[in-house]
Amino acid sequence: MGLIGWANERIKILNIWDIGCIKWSCIFFGIIIGAYIADFTKQYLWLFIALAILLAIKPLYKMFKK
């Protein structure tokens, strides 16, 4: 089984809330990247980093759990 097959198998166990958390985590990651462009988001950088990490923990745990 290759990487794509493994990922497809693991993704099937995620529910709608996990996918939502992944999407929000990606949004916050994009905000972090955007913080280096806009001065407004630089003041909230650590908040966005914390939110991205917190929202990514549960789906990643479910995905890598055996």
Walkthrough of the structure:
The chain has 66 residues and is mainly alpha-helical. It has one domain (3-64). Helix content is 79%, strand content 0%. It has 4 helices and no strands. It has helices spanning 3-11, 16-34, 39-42, 45-64. The mean pLDDT is 83.
Short description, anyone?
With 66 residues, the protein is mostly helical.
Overall pLDDT score: 83
- What count of domains describes the coordinates? 1
Q: What letter string, H or E per element, gives the SSE order?
A: HHHH
Q: Roughly what percent helix?
A: over 70%
Q: Give the low-pLDDT segments.
A: none
For the report, how would you describe the main beta sheet?
none
Number of helices: 4
Number of distinct beta strands: 0
Oligomer: single chain
Distance between the termini: 16 Å
User: What is the CA-based Rg, rounded?
Assistant: 14 Å
Shape: elongated
Strand-pairing-aware structural class: mainly alpha
> What share of residues are in beta strands?
under 5%
Task: List key phrases describing it.
66 residues, mainly alpha, 4 helices, elongated
Question: What is the element layout, followed by pairings?
Answer:
Layout lengths: L2 H9 L4 H19 L4 H4 L2 H20 L2
